[in-house]
Amino acid sequence: MQRIIECVPNFSEGRDLSKIERIVAPFKNQENFKMISYEPDADYNRTVVTLIGEVEAIMEALIPFVKNCIEEIDMNHQSGEHPRIGAVDVIPFIPIQNVTIEDCVNFANTMGEKIAALFDIPVFLYAKAARTEDRISLPNIRKGEYEGMKEKIKEVAWHPDFGKPATHPTFGSVAVGARDFLVAFNIDLATDNEKTASTLAKTIRQSSGGFQHIQAGPAFLEKQGHMQVTMNILDYAKNPIYRILEVIKFEALRYHVAVKSSEIIGLVPKQALLDSVKYYLQVQQIPYDKSMDLETLTAYAIKYLQFRDFNKTKIVEYWI
Amino acid sequence: MQRIIECVPNFSEGRDLSKIERIVAPFKNQENFKMISYEPDADYNRTVVTLIGEVEAIMEALIPFVKNCIEEIDMNHQSGEHPRIGAVDVIPFIPIQNVTIEDCVNFANTMGEKIAALFDIPVFLYAKAARTEDRISLPNIRKGEYEGMKEKIKEVAWHPDFGKPATHPTFGSVAVGARDFLVAFNIDLATDNEKTASTLAKTIRQSSGGFQHIQAGPAFLEKQGHMQVTMNILDYAKNPIYRILEVIKFEALRYHVAVKSSEIIGLVPKQALLDSVKYYLQVQQIPYDKSMDLETLTAYAIKYLQFRDFNKTKIVEYWI
């Protein structure tokens, strides 16, 4: 059986669509993996690419992708709302099928070593691939961002895991890692008040006393003109989507702010949706059938979890 | 202004009431602090004393109290359900007013040094006063209990923070520490189903992925015939009472179980109630006045937090 991973490289261009097309070209029309999506975000000035498929094929395509980012992106003239350390900011490997998290740590090492050797770009191993405590957390590595890393990387404690302790003059540096499947979930608030979104994020995130497996913060959506609580759910079994949504809903009541809708960035495993849909069906005493098809599940998720811009192709299982 | 602390010494006699009266005599009829309660538990064979007041006065009274415990309790003939390492098991100092947690660490050091010097009793500093990682947790210090400590204390890793590495022949040893105020809060469920209460406890407690500062589990109330989610809130600023209550309420909906009422065990700081009452007043757009009197606050807490058996004498500030 094939060894299937997900890989979600994030690069620091979210505005120039022709550049973006050129950058992701090595991921197009592939036999052994699929580019599920590439979602440019103009406010973030960042694009998140989601790949699923056979590990060797993905590893191979990442090299010309990194090369394209070197050619297309000059970090000295890049700015956006999302923190970042390089033209490619992160490359995480995620186990999906016939692959363990330990395998993914190995893939991260292989890829990190290659990127440093081929392009003279310093590489930080993060998350499950981290070699020291202070590199487990991506925000910790990112502190100071592209601009600050020029000095930070000279400190012994921040020497890269691969490559020389000096950032690439236009690319910066990159974090390569392994992690379990992470649900990127954002809740749309009917307010443009940054403080409200920030306070709400604090009620749920681990670092402020909230749930163990939640990273969250406020974000302003320029186009829509409203705030989001943007989050990563690091363990969707222990911190299910519905629970986080319901907490934000009752917390927002005190500010008289409605939850307008919510969105999944990238993909979500079927089980994560089943767990959350089940809650609402139980509350409403509607029979729950865990073998429901993806269409039914999608309809329930849109209805109860208030997903916008969602369809069954955002469910991991649709692709494998 | 006066420096006010809470101090909650626990001693290992919960059955012989005349002994207990003699032991707590130094806490009675004091000018500068009050003994709010002393609650003997026969099953535990242990008594929990709650003192509130001026720090110097409490420190002074603790010395004759420890002396009484040496005279009245022989640990070689003591047994009960509650784990313990000595005739006085723990002495925690808790900041209330004009006192920081760092001050309380100092009080623990002063008291620990005195007890060791005066009575030749080995002292372990715990919680915020701990000098090593493995002494933060009281259960960790208590492992092996009075009986096991005779050998354990000889290991270099378990040499006491004050005193010689040998237990007192009849008293044993004692843990002295500093911690923040802890709110003991229970939520009454309209069900006798243990599994439901246990599942609900897991949604909120830190050890199962829930909120950072919550310890929780299920408990059956024999007399009332229903289950509780029983919990300690270790940081009521970061995990306010109302938030925990609201999570349990919406989680219980899926089991079609109502929250009947709730209760505070021991005392609760005024600020903890203000924080939670404020939420409901904001939701209902009722003006919030942080200088409301204790009667008003009590009425709101009963109304919104569903407290039973509650009155203003359960608020810390009533006593100071």
List keywords for this structure.
homodimer, 2 domains, Formiminotransferase-cyclodeaminase, Chain B, domain 1, seven-stranded mixed beta sheet, 320 residues, four-stranded antiparallel beta sheet
Shape of chain A: globular
First-last Cα distance of chain A: 12 Å
**Which oligomeric form is depicted?**
homodimer
> Number of helical segments of chain A?
9
* % residues in beta strands of chain A: 15-25%
Structural class of chain A: alpha+beta
Can you walk through the features of this model?
The structure is a homodimer of 320-residue chains. Chain A is globular, with a radius of gyration of 20 Å. In chain A, strands 1, 2, 3, 4, 5, 6 and 7 form a seven-stranded mixed beta sheet that branches. Chain A has helices spanning 17-24, 55-72, 101-119, 138-142, 145-152, 194-204, 241-253, 270-283, 294-304, and strands spanning 4-7, 10-11, 33-41, 46-54, 88-97, 123-127, 174-178, 183-189, 214-221, 226-233, 259-265. In chain A, helix 1 packs antiparallel against helix 2 and helix 2 (55-72) runs parallel beside helix 3. In chain A, a hairpin with a 4-residue loop joins strand 3 and strand 4 (46-54). Chain A has two domains: 4-178, Formiminotransferase-cyclodeaminase, Chain B, domain 1 (2-Layer Sandwich), CATH 3.30.990.10; 183-319, Formiminotransferase, C-terminal subdomain (Alpha-Beta Plaits), CATH 3.30.70.670. Chain A is built from nine helices and eleven strands. The model of chain A has no long low-confidence stretch (mean pLDDT 96). Chain A is an alpha+beta fold and 320 residues long. The A-B interface holds A 203, 206, 208-213, 235, 238-239, 243, 246-247, 250-251, 253-256, 279, 282-283, 285 and B 203, 206, 208-213, 235, 238-239, 243, 246-247, 250-251, 253-256, 279, 282-283, 285.
